[in-house]
Amino acid sequence: MTASSPERAFAVFRRGQLRDEGMASFRHGLRTYINPDTGVAFTETEIAIATARESRFYIDADSTDLILLAVQSRDSYLADQVRPDRAAHAWLLNYHGTLWNLPVLGASGASGPVNAPAAVGTVFVGSTTVPDPVAHQCTSPAGLRFQNLFTTITPAGGVAALTLQGLDTGPETNLDVGVELTWSNGPPGAPEKAAVTTKLSGGLAAETDAQYGRRVLDTMRRKEGAGNNAQLRAWARQATVAVEDAFIYACAKHGGSVRIVVTQKRGDTLGPTARIASIGTLADVTSYMTPPGSPVLPTPPLVLVTAADGEACDMVMGMSMPTGQASGYVDIDPWPTLGGATPQTQITAVTSQLIFQITRGTGIAVPPVTAPSLMLWDDDTSRFESLSVTSITAAGGDLFNVVLSSAAITPLVAQYISPDSARRLTIAKAVDTYFDHLGPGELIDLTIDDRSHRAYRYPRTNEESPLRAGSGIESWLRDGLGAALADFTLDDISIATPTLPTDPVDEPNLLVAGNIGIYPF
After folding, report:
1. H or E segment at 427?
2. What Å distances lie between residue 75 and 10, 55, 156, 364, 395, CA to CA?
3. pLDDT tens track for 56-66
4. What's the rounded Cα separation, in Å, for the pair 389 and 402?
5. Euclidean distance between the first and final Cα of the chain, in Å?
6. What is each CA distance from 478 to 418, 425, 431, 465, 484, in whole angstroms?
7. How confident is the model at residue 323 (pLDDT cuts 50, 70, 90)?
């Protein structure tokens, strides 16, 4: 019997399987022969001794099994090369890449906003052509080079809000807030330094084999040609390695128009908006996809390249996990629990970084201890932050005053409070991964709009990158938590489907993680 292998089109044998089959056939054959020493048929004892482990016949069969396994490994390796998602690096590039004429994408540089102090009226020259020696450039403390993208005149406040694009590439160009950049060819009279105001994003390493294999598979699955949706998507994805995916809306504005909505690879960026394409990524795709300068698209199509617009989706989930253990909730009797007409517990007033007021879910009992273990969902980073609770006191009705001994972040009104879990990071990453698999919604109402036969999102929402959020998040949580998640329910969700933009000229909405709360039943 061969090993069960639904992923193979041929038999795959386990170690020792052919040896055991051969020895069984040999024993059966011996039973039909006469022992020349005794003149009678071989006994079962004689057969067992002759074919025991370490016997000559057993060693021969075992050696044959090893040889056949070596041959089989070559067969399995060769079979893997046919599939882009399993092929080795050389096969992937030299066979599949050559066959489908797909280039491997190199590393990309990060982009984002910086504040540059200067005298009123100072002009910072920019250019979306990267690199462009005419545009003003600056360097980071590590020597990484950046270029100003858009020409900006310093306003009355004396600080110019610029957008920089990395001339150097890789994740190291994703500079953090506060990093100071030095002008290498800044405008005359401008101060030497400029500061990053929002963490730069879009800096990624060169395309991995897995990412490249996915693009090859998509090319194989969807016939490209004559500038159809599949081809437009493929071209947009090869504009820069920072592009995670591209979604095509044909004729959404009018006949002959194309809307291309780009999502960005998350990389090392935290938070719900990490997939919203940066200015630099959009500039790269726009340059690559917009006629007449496009190297792939001729005139006359009207091509609009935009990002999606993040729309926050709040979730309240009931999660039954072990209590008082590292595999579940920290407290033996975790508080607050799930229940009531208002299931979530959230901050309703903030006095200071260490003192704030919460409104717990209606109908939930008071805390069983003075200082229960709590965690706060930081919707800026999509992470739970463990709170050092000193005390919780009743403030009347469903209100409670919370006092902390220390705080890593400042609590904000409307943030969700949950009982602390040792698996908080695993849960947060599962939430990230779940929302990252969603795609943007539609631009028009397909049920009533006459353009719906052409202006729907491509790829369709029922084929790839669904737009709807809901109880499907349970699968991602179970993948991360395993058997520790005994039961689950999605008790409340603020929005399940992205709303339609008021005008097709606007960006489509993409559901991203909003406030997340988890509670025991």
Report:
1. helix 424-436
2. 9, 30, 71, 62, 71
3. 999 999 999 99
4. 7
5. 48
6. 19, 14, 11, 20, 8
7. very high
